[in-house]
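Usage

Read records sequentially. Each one opens with the input sequence:
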Amino acid sequence: MAMSQPVSVMKGRPNARLPPEVNRVLFVRNLPFKISADEMYELFGKYGPIRQIRMGSSKATVGTAFVVYDDIFDAKNACDHLSGFSIKDRYLIVLYHQTSKQLKKTDLDAKEQEVSDLKRQRDSMS
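and closes with the structure output:
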């Protein structure tokens, strides 16, 4: 009876621990505004199967994208190799998406609203 091995060993990777910020979702900034989805898949697909790419389309988000890999090791490899990569005279900034930062911003907005409400209450009482 054969013993099952961890997934990381089965894929030919050493059983190494990754830093906590590493995840399957990459946030990409400083993209050329005219880059196509096909070019994105071609560039990021070199590092492994991609589940999804979401490119910014509004004025505030153009030049950014989220790239979701099937495997966390592929995402790490892409982040390591594509950070600082030059495409169409732009240097890419590739980071791991961190939901905790987004949650902290939401909490901060709520706290600011709460303080504003308390100030209005105090001013109306005086």
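Summary fields computed downstream for this record:
- The beta strands are 25-29, 50-55, 65-69, 86-87, 90-91, 93-96.
- The helical segments are 7-10, 37-44, 72-82, 99-125.
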